[in-house]
Amino acid sequence: MKSRHILKNRLFQGLFQALGTAGLVIVATSCAPKLTEKAESRQVPSAYNATSATDTTTSALVRWQEFFTDPYLKGLIDTALQNNQELNITRQEIEIARNEIRARKGEYLPFVGIGGRAELDKVGRYTVQGTTEENLDIKPGRTTPDPLSNFQLGAFANWEVDIWHRLRNARKAAVSRYLASVEGRNFMVTNLIAEIANSYFELLALDNQLAIVEQNIKIQSDALEIVRLQMAAAKVTELAVLRFEAQVQHTRSLQFNLQQQIIEAENHLNYLVGRYPQHIVRNDQSLTNMSLPKVVAGLPAQLLNNRPDIRQAEQNLAANRLDVQVARASFYPSLSFTAGFGIQAFTPALLTALPESLLYGIGGDLVAPLVNRNGLKANYYSANARQAQAVYKYEQTLRLAYLEVANQVANIGNLEKSYQAKTKEVDALNQSVTIANMLFKSARADYMEVLLTQREALESRFDLIENRLQQMNAAVNVYRSLGGGWR
Fold first, then answer.
1. How far apart are CA 486 and CA 189, in angstroms?
2. For the segment 138-168, what is each residue's pLDDT rounded down to a tens digit?
3. 355: which residues sit within 8 A by CB, 6+ positions away?
4. pLDDT at 28 over 50
5. How does 71-100 read in b/e, with b if 16+ C-beta sit within 10 Å?
6. Which of 139, 262, 265, 414 has minimal Cβ neighbours within 10 Å of its Cβ?
């Protein structure tokens, strides 16, 4: 028994000595090509424009439940965050990325299994194995069965030692991609909330425009009746009646077009919410009387922490850099061990005959590529190129985010000035309509002046609603561009 232990110790010592010697030789001959890693630029301007504030307060930190005050809009957003199909698809992508982490983690941990085996083997007598068994000096009563069966129970294990952190870096890359998928979902939430808000305000604008059209149809119909009475009194010709009637029909055509646009806007909102078409319960208040959401831009440097797409690009960049390290480790030797332990006999009754039925084994492999490493070099160069692509993608995302905010901040100021000018235009045209009607009744103005003034007044009121809608959209777009809504 003592000699058996001595033999095992020598076996293990010889195994590790052999692996150590081979490792020194392989490491000395293994090397990876030198590459230059591209660094990303995180520099952004200190402000969005010359007149923007330098306060660190930003609307990006405001939760969407507080940014929007309309209860109907908040109900739509809340439903969409639960039912939107595109968002639910993204959630499953996150789950896939999370499972990838689990798979990568299992690669650098030992794999241990347990199993059994049963087989039956009949060899020819006139073969090397058959002749050997026939000439063996076996004691009476202990002959080898023919055919020979074999039964085995045991455990086995294999483990690749992560010397160069190739497997751990692969797991870290999977973690970074998982975090990138989470940020991608956050970016989708931000865009979804903004799209629902913009669509909702568009629906309100269409409602307001439809109300204006219906009001104008009534006014124009009343004017048409007056013109008909004047024609009966020979004060105007039939041409005036026809022109007034054409104006009424033109406005009714606008009414039907707006009704169709309202249906399509409702259906689009229902699609975003994740349900089949139905009536959208909404605010009946005039869009011009609704207060604009207050937006504070903050500093451009805050985009790095608040914009989900920038954070997503940053995580993808980290993952690609880890991929380069994984590809570099492929040039170095890999060390792996295999081991087995169990019992084996040619009849089940002898499986418990210990230690004769006991079996065990251990082995180690140290392997590294030495010749024809073109495939490894190609993967290494490709990983470095993808890392450079990720750098450019990060910088591109950062610049685009800055431009989006800068454009929308400037847009808010210009739209406010435009809205004030348009309000004065509407007031002036409304007064001109009243005056034109009075002059026409007293035969001091031509009917064409009345029709032209009415059309200009209608268009100006439409433009005023459109301008207000643009203001609403600009506020929502700044909120989205700053990275608000996903928290």
1. 6
2. 555 555 666 778 889 999 999 989 888 889 9
3. none
4. no
5. eebbebbebbbeebeebeebeeebeebeeb
6. 139
Q: Report the distance separating Cα 309 and Cα 404, nearest Å.
A: 13
Q: Does 397 score more than 60 pLDDT?
A: yes
Nearest to 120 by CA among 145, 155, 154: 145
Whether the CB-CB separation of 297 and 71 falls below 8 Å is answered with no
List Cβ neighbours of 249 (8 Å cut-off, separation of 6 or more): none
Strand intervals (E) in 55-132: 111-121
Residue with tokens 């406005």: 251
The token pair that represents 324 in the structure block? 């380069």
Please give the structure tokens belonging to residue 181. 């998928």
pLDDT at position 139: 56
Backbone angles phi, psi at 354, to 5 degrees: -95, 145
Regarding pTM above 0.85, the answer is no
What average pLDDT does the segment 107-119 reach? 88
Strands ordered across the beta sheet of 148-161: 111-121, 148-161, 334-345, 358-367
DSSP assignments along 198-263, one per residue: HHHHHHHHHHHHHHHHHHHHHHHHHHHHHHHHHHHTTSS-HHHHHHHHHHHHHHHHHHHHHHHHHH
